[in-house]
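User: Can you predict the 3D structure for this chain?
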Amino acid sequence: MFTQNEGTLDRGIRAVVGIVLLVATFMGLSGLWQIIAGVVAVVLLATAIFGVCPLYSVLGINTCPVKPATRR
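Assistant: Here is the predicted structure, written as structure tokens:
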């Protein structure tokens, strides 16, 4: 459906930050900050899982390593 535009390092950082925010959502935050952290955590984890960032697509950013062209 969408082409991946996130590299391995980018996906790993998003996953770690998403998990940290998700833990903070349930353990330390309250009120509006809890809602904001929860939403950001879900978005970061979803983009890490699928490897596609819609904002990257709009801005034309691609952190995937370029695969060398195959010779025939």
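The radius of gyration is 15 Å. The mean pLDDT is 88.
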